[in-house]
Amino acid sequence: MRGLIQRVQFADVKVDGKTVGEIGEGLLLLLGVEKDDDQAKADKLLDKVLKYRVFSDQDGKMNLGLKETGGGLLVVSQFTLVADTRKGLRPGFSSGASPDHGEKMYNYFVGCAQTLHHDVATGRFGADMKVSLLNDGPVTFNLEV
């Protein structure tokens, strides 16, 4: 399971021109699911996302996580994150989850996130989405478990 987090001042996701999820200050998480991912990996990634220290403390150092700041979390499925790009000019997706498994793991991740954090918004799995954001910093990290 892979996640790309971006610290944002705001982010939203639209499907067919309608906003389906939005947050103010917080994290945008682009989530990629691989075929061997399970609930344990989802739990581990979620814990990392919620605690990863990307927000500034009173001294201006990145020492605070999303749980400590109370910011929003926007979770957007992103199949292309699991692409193998090591060789050639065309991405390979052999490690990617099937649509059914990917959706199951995405829904599990989102459900757990909503249980553990008060401000969670989502995109729509499998949809053609338009994501807007104002990256703060910019601060972007690739997380793998």
Automatic annotation (TrEMBL):
Reactions the enzyme catalyzes: glycyl-tRNA(Ala) + H2O = tRNA(Ala) + glycine + H(+); a D-aminoacyl-tRNA + H2O = a tRNA + a D-alpha-amino acid + H(+)
This protein's GO cellular component annotations are: cytoplasm
SUPFAM superfamilies, sorted: DTD-like
**Keyword Repressor listed:** no
Write down the top EC class of this protein. Answer: hydrolase
Record key words, sorted: Cytoplasm, Hydrolase, RNA-binding, tRNA-binding
> Does the record carry Signal as a key word?
no
Question: Which Enzyme Commission numbers does its entry carry?
Answer: 3.1.1.96, 3.1.1.-
The domain-related comment in the record is:
A Gly-cisPro motif from one monomer fits into the active site of the other monomer to allow specific chiral rejection of L-amino acids.
Q: How does it assemble?
A: Homodimer.
What name does the UniProt record give this protein?
Answer: D-aminoacyl-tRNA deacylase
Originating gene: dtd
Q: Report the source organism.
A: Endozoicomonas numazuensis
List, alphabetically, the Pfam families matched: Tyr_Deacylase
Recorded family membership: Belongs to the DTD family.
Write out the residue ranges of the motif Gly-cisPro motif, important for rejection of L-amino acids: 137-138
Biological process terms in GO annotation: D-amino acid catabolic process
One Gene Ontology MF term: D-tyrosyl-tRNA(Tyr) deacylase activity
* Function field: An aminoacyl-tRNA editing enzyme that deacylates mischarged D-aminoacyl-tRNAs. Also deacylates mischarged glycyl-tRNA(Ala), protecting cells against glycine mischarging by AlaRS. Acts via tRNA-based rather than protein-based catalysis; rejects L-amino acids rather than detecting D-amino acids in the active site. By recycling D-aminoacyl-tRNA to D-amino acids and free tRNA molecules, this enzyme counteracts the toxicity associated with the formation of D-aminoacyl-tRNA entities in vivo and helps enforce protein L-homochirality.
